[in-house]
Amino acid sequence: PRSLRPAPPRTRAASRTRAMAPAHTVCFCNNRGGVGKTFMAFQTACEAARARPEKKVLVIDFSLYSDQTALLLGGSARESFGAPMKGLQVTVDNTTCDTRAEGLIRDLEHAPDVMDVDERSGKERKPSSSIFGAFFSRQKSPTKTGKSAEAKETAPPRALDLSPYMIRPNDHNPEIPPNLFLVPSAGATSWSQTQREDDDFDEKEVPLWARRGDGWQACAKRLRLAIDALPEPFQAVFVDTDHLAACVLTKLALACCAKTVVPLSFDDGDFNRLFQDVTGNALFTDVMLPMIENGTCRARVFRMVFTKVTSTKNEPVTTDGGIDSPFKPTNTVAAQMDAMASQVQSACHSDRRYAALFDENEDFIAGTNSQFRKKYFTAMKLVPDLAANLSKMCGLPLCAMTSRKYTAPSGLSGQSSKTVLDGLKAEIRNLTTRVLDEMYDGTISAS
Predict the structure, then answer these.
(1) pLDDT over 90 percentage in the chain
(2) In the predicted structure, residue 278 carries a pLDDT above the cut 50
(3) What is the distance of C-alpha 206 from the center of its chain?
(4) Straight-line distance from the first to the last Cα atom of the chain, in angstroms, rounded to the nearest whole number
(5) Which of 148, 184, 328, 376 is least crowded, fewest Cβ atoms below 10 Å from its Cβ?
(6) Are 387 and 397 in contact (CB under 8 A)?
(7) Of 440, 11, 38, nearest to 239 (Cα)?
(8) Residue 324 φ then ψ, to 5°
(9) Do the Cβ atoms of 57 and 45 come closer than 8 Å?
(10) What is the three-class DSSP state of 34?
(11) Taking the mean position of all CA atoms in its chain, how far away is CA 426?
(12) Cβ(25)–Cβ(257) below 8 Å
């Protein structure tokens, strides 16, 4: 397979010129699992690629569980208990640790022009173990160029070519649009395997979520440079992150993307953990605010999306509080959406630091409740169990689903009606348009 061939030489950005960086860079973040983050990223990325076949979409899987990779490369179904997910088996069979996210992060960390300087002494430190932990494979030694430290320090920055780390899911899963590309991940080392205290213990075996410090920041700059240098057809980049919001991977996404989409559940405890989390993992307070204060957070909250919302009618409505929804939720749910949106704006009023999380100025955020809710909040319909499970198990995006009968490798089978699918497709199209722009507002595919 192409992904097993030796990686081509990395090139400078100047040799891969483009008029401008991708128009949209979006990361999906929440420090609570199960809110629909990966499912939403999967559906919107596939719809973006379907809606504009002349452009390319890149998806980067920065989740420790590699769920996005599994969905795009064949689905999450397992043929038997203990068997790997189909999509992850495809990943392992067609890539190596050098051509997945593991290799990308390692190469970003040990790029030839990287200088790791001790802030106290001002001297260059010797290469240390990976700051990214056991999720990533054995590190390469830094390239020896023979140049002096001064030459390295003044050398122009290099943009790492991302193409050697990409795979085209359509080559393995024909349900995915052929203009969508993926930087896959396939971490396999468990937490327990990293917790050793014997004499042979190596610090590099400590998992990434246990690491501290700012060593990731140089890598973030290089990753952003690499994304900005993507060839012109790439117009949208989606990054799926882990629910361990304080981990290095999520910080890399927040440092490189312009937009953050935050999926929301209706659980009050889950919602409050965006602001307060005893584990130090609150997306807003523990991760984004410190990054904004030290100048490393490029991303701002662009949409907060209530997920798994029960619909009573397929027609757009505006709640009493001003939230635009592409469908009509129950009155109780609509009131709950308004109340939670009000809590977010209240947090911005009471602590102005939270206002900096959003991409509007403080005057706008301090304005009327309806303005704030209209801009930042929307909803995603609860997908019926059969359609949702077949989509995940088969790696089948809703935008490509038809009313025929599908059977997952696990044995689950069934079909959804044209009416149901048309409603779901229209809603995914509307959400994609709100996350990106009106250029993605196309005709839905036949069901």
Answers:
(1) 58
(2) yes
(3) 23
(4) 33
(5) 148
(6) no
(7) 38
(8) -80, 125
(9) yes
(10) coil
(11) 23
(12) yes
pTM (2 decimals)?
Answer: 0.85
Residue 384: what are its φ and ψ, rounded to 5°?
A: -50, 145
State which H helix or E strand residue 300 sits in.
Answer: strand 300-309
Mean pLDDT value of segment 259-263: 97
- Give which of 379, 377, 391 is closest to 421, Cα–Cα: 391
Q: What is the pLDDT of residue 112?
A: 58
Q: 240-255, pLDDT tens digit by residue? A: 998 889 889 999 999 9
Question: Residue 100 phi/psi, 5° resolution?
Answer: -115, -175
The residue type at 297: C
> Do 429 and 52 contact (CB within 8 A), yes or no?
no
* Rounded Cα gap, residues 389 and 75, in angstroms: 10
DSSP H/E element including 355: helix 352-355
Contact 41, 49 (CB under 8 A): no
Query: Could you tell me if 140 and 112 are in contact, meaning their C-beta atoms sit under 8 angstroms apart?
Result: no
pLDDT, average across residues 210-221: 78
Which of the 8 DSSP states describes residue 167? B
> How many separate helices (H) and strands (E) can be counted in the chain?
16, 13
For 26, 27, 388, 392, 394, the CA distances from 435, given in Å and listed in that order, are 8, 11, 21, 22, 25
Fill in the DSSP letter of residue 191.
Answer: H
Residue 144 in tokens? 């020896």
- Whether the CB-CB separation of 387 and 31 falls below 8 Å is answered with no
Q: How far is CA 66 from CA 101, 206, 225, 348, in A?
A: 10, 19, 24, 34
Q: Give me the residue label for tokens 């067609």.
A: 94
Tokens of 149: 């430290």
Tell me the C-alpha to C-alpha distance, in Å, between residue 334 and each of 105, 119, 164, 323: 42, 52, 46, 9
Six-digit token pair at 210? Answer: 């246990």
User: pLDDT tens across 400-424, in order?
Assistant: 999 999 998 888 899 999 999 999 9
Long-range contacts, 190-199 (Cβ 8 Å, 24+): 193/134, 194/133, 194/134
When computed from its CA atoms, the radius of gyration of the chain, rounded to whole angstroms, is 22
**CA–CA dist 420, 442 (Å, integer):** 19
242 Rama sector, left if φ>0, alpha if ψ -120 to 50, beta otherwise: beta
Structure confidence at residue 188 as a pLDDT band (50, 70, 90): low
What backbone phi and psi angles, to 5 degrees, belong to 329?
A: -85, 170
